[in-house]
Amino acid sequence: MSSLSGNGINVNIRLKLLIDKNSNKVLCGEAGKDFVDFLFGLLQFPLGCIVGLLQENKALVSVAFSNILQSVQNLEDSFFPSPTVKQSLLEPGVDSSQLDFHLLFPKFKPLYHSSQYFGSPSQNPTKGYIKEDNAKYMVMDSLNITPWSDISLLTLINKFNIREFSSVEEKNVVVNFNKSLELLKASLESETVLTDVFLREE
Description:
It is elongated and about 65 Å long. It has helices at residues 33-41, 47-56, 63-74, 83-90, 96-99, 115-118, 150-159, 177-187, 193-198, and strands at residues 2-4, 11-20, 25-31, 93-95, 109-111, 137-140, 145-147, 168-175. Strands 1, 2, 3, 6, 7 and 8 form a six-stranded antiparallel beta sheet that branches. A hairpin with a 4-residue loop joins β2 and β3. The chain is an alpha+beta fold and 202 residues long. It comes from Jatropha curcas.
């Protein structure tokens, strides 16, 4: 379940993690529509937005991408066809028809005339990317996402050679703006995203 404040910024998404206590690794997460929508929504953010957002919040970014962004910032306006071109590179717009619910969206400049690329509200009457229902999803540590099923869970437990269910514990976590930044960063550089974000700090 998620909560959204009136200004659209305070969004908290709840996620249940299943953890192998012996290895201190996340086996998978049990998620609802809100968390899956968050992950799918990352695919629509322009790369320039991602780099700028991570830098703004003092997260380490690839040196090469940082250099590209810094180059745009340092070049005088006279090198660009117009100042708005430079500004569009530094603050790329994001279509708001689908992203206005997103944890990271308040940090981005809305772009209201790009529905031909993202889908108009009339085509997507429900916010997000998957249907409004009570379905649960299995989110792997690597962020592979499948519909939840007990059979899949048993298969996963066997895959990790877990002999006793007592070694598996549940942990409820909250994904807020700061955690969403960590998830974004980890998704670009790791295959153990959930473990890195929610367990490594411990």
